[in-house]
Every structure is written in C-alpha cells, then in structure tokens.
Amino acid sequence: MITRIEITNLMSHEQSVIEPADGLTVICGPNNIGKSSVVAALQLLCYNDTSTYVMRHGAKDCRVVVETSDGHRIEWARKNSPSYMIDGERFDRLKGGVPDQLHEILRMPRIVSKSGKQEFDLHFGEQKSPVFLLNESPGTIAQFFAASSDAGHLIAMQSLHKENIKSRKREKERLEAEKQELKSRLKMVSPVDAIRGEAAKCSEQFEAISVLERESKLLGQRITGLKQAAAETERLLATEKVLEQLEPAPELHNTSALDKTTAEIERVTDLIAACKAKADCLRQLQSPPELFDTSSLENSCTQIEINQESAVCSKAKLGALSDLKAPPVLQPVGPLQVSIDELERSSNRVRSLSCRFKVFEGLEAPPAPLPVTELAETIQRLENEYVTLTAIEKQSARLGSRYRSLHAEIEQWAKDNPSCPTCGGEIHSDQLICNLTGDQETAE
Q1: CB-CB neighbours of 436 under 10 Å
Q2: What span, in angstroms and rounded, lies between the C-alpha atoms of 135 and 75?
Q3: How many CB atoms are located within 10 Å of the residue 144 CB?
Q4: pTM surpassing 0.85?
Q5: Which residues of 229-380 form beta strands (DSSP E)?
Q6: How far apart are CA 347 and CA 193, in angstroms?
Q7: pLDDT score, position 441
Q8: Helix (H) or strand (E) holding 334
Q9: Residue-level pLDDT at 438
Q10: How far apart (Å, rounded) are the C-alpha atoms in residues 314 and 307?
Q11: Mean pLDDT rounded to a whole number for the chain
Q12: Where is pLDDT greater, at 11 or 435?
C-alpha cells in the first residue's frame, strides 16, 4: 500500500506531499488546484507515458516519489529524459518502458489482451470517463476477462458486494427497529416539557420573591433609621426642657475687702517668718554677759509686743469687716447640691452636644420633615406589602414543595432510565435539570 506521495515541479504542483490514510483516501477541493495532477503523476510513475508537457515552466527537472508500506521507495524523474530510482538503484534509457521491478513492487500494470492489440487500465480512471468497462462493447469486456488474471478476484468482489448489500439490509431493519424503540422512549420522556415549564415558572416566581425580600429589607432599614432619628429628637427636646427649668446662678458680692484682709494676713505671715529667721540668727550668738534680773522687764516688753500685734490685727480686721454686709441667712444645701449635680450633668451633656455639633457642622441641613399623611400612607403601603409578602412566602413554600417533588420525580426517572434513549449516553439527574432550566432561559 502507498503510504507517501511526493510531487515536485509537476504540472500545478511545485512541492506537494500527500500521506494517504489507511483504507480509502479522498482528495477534494475547488477546480484547477491539482487534484487530477496527482492521478497523472501516479500514471507517469506506473507507465512512464509521454511526459514532455508535465514540467512546470522555469523548472529544470520534475519528479514523483512514492513510498510503500513494505519499505520500498520508487522515484520517477525527468530532466532531459525519464529515469527511475528504485530502492537506491537507478534505471535510465528506458525508451518509453518501465523497469521490471516496478510492477513487482506496485502491482499496478496495465492488462494486455491475448491478441496484444488492446490494453486495459484497471487501476486509473479518467476524470470524465464512465465507470470501468461500462462504455465498452461486450467483445471488449470479454477480452478483458479473458486476459485478466484478476477475473476470479473480480467475481469474488462481486459476491462480496452482494453479501454486503444483504448485510446492509439487515442493518437497515435493525436500525428501523431501534428507531421505533427510540420513538417509544421519546413518548415516555414527553412529560419532561411540562416539567420544564413548571421549573421555569418556579424560577421566575423565586426571582420575584428574592426581589421583594431585598426591597423589604431596605424598607426595614429605612424604618429603623427613622425610629432612631425620632428617639434622638425626643431626647434632645427633653434635655432642652430640663435646662429651661434651671434657676439662674446667684449674684456674687464684692470681694475687694476680703482681698485686702487676705493680703494683710499674708503680710503679717511674712513678718512672722522674718522674725523667726532673726531669732534663729540670734540663737547662734554667744550668751550675753550676765545681766540683772530682767524678767519683769521682759515680761512687760513681751506683753507690750503682744498688745501691739493684737491692736494691729484688730485694726486690720475691723477695717476689713467694716465694709462687709451682714451675711445672708443660709438656706438648706440639699436642693443646692441637687442643682449642682444637675448642672454638672448638664455641663457634661453640653460638652457632649458641642462635640457632636462640631462633628455635624460639616453636614448638610436635615431635610424638612415629611407630612404625616405621607408617612401614614407609607406605613399602610408597607402593611399591604407585608400581607402580599406573606402570601408570596406561602406560595413560595408551595412552589418549593412542588419543585422538590419534581426534582424527586426527575431523579427517579433518571434512576429508571440510566442511559439516554436518543444517544445512549449516561443520564445524570442534576445535569438534566440544569439543561432543562438552561433551555427554558434560552427560549425566554
């Protein structure tokens, strides 16, 4: 069998390599691309016919190389005259003939009639010629069978062809029976279309429910925000009312006299400290010479100093207290302490509110409150939507139950029919459901 064909500078082929597959090889394509040139190349290789017209324009030589499955390599070449190279051995000066080894390898010779006047080309057919021998006379056909050593093979081929026809008829009957069986199986799976419709409706309703759930969550978040804003407003109003109920702080008296007294006390304190320092310094001195008894004089001096200091202090106190008014009558301190505690808490709230105010300064002014009627309508609409959502959830539960039931039916059908009645492939319930849902979405 030929396994490789190489054509170089022959007719429309500059350099072509064809590797035929096992069995039948068909070369197809548009007109004038070189299909017939492949047949002409093989004819030149087998018969060495006239080849003065086959070389491409501008080429110096042309060649056809064939390799066979049993390891032979045959090359036909033409430069000035045709020559062969068979398994490395060169043959030339053939005078229109072919080497004897050629047909022993290829086994593709022309068949010559017994009279030697006519040749039959059994292996090649012209492009526009009828099928082999169909356009020949009965005498010519008889001469071919008389001369052909392959007549027995042709009769065997005819018998084999008849047997093939019978086999194909039996195959046709088998396929018809299988066709009827497939039709019956298709009737069995016809409810799948209805299931597909139900599944599509379930998918649509589930999507609608999902949208409503998202809208419901969004509305719930908005309502929660409104409630928080209302609670904060009520708290701020209550704080404002408490602050309005506080009494103003009492008016403070003039403290100038008290300041003077405090300054005088500080001055006396400094004087006493200076005297103590002097006394500490005097203690370090040596004892004076013994004096007469001066205890009485010392006592008198001490008393005089004490009296002078008392007089100075009394004058200072009298001067400080002379300008003061009588102290007011003291009130119970319990309510005052409560007020002070409340003021401290209020001060803390004011600082907290100031901090919040600084944070909120960059914010835009809050929108004007909507009319209560719109809020009531919104609440009524929400209640209606809640009722609708409840009904949809019940319907969703029913559809979910129906979906699970259909899923179980499909799984049971897949278990009862493990292979596809159309293609014979294995059936998976999950893949079948996905295909049904995907087909429905594509149709939509």
Answers
A1: 20
A2: 34
A3: 21
A4: no
A5: none
A6: 76
A7: 43
A8: helix 333-360
A9: 54
A10: 10
A11: 79
A12: 11
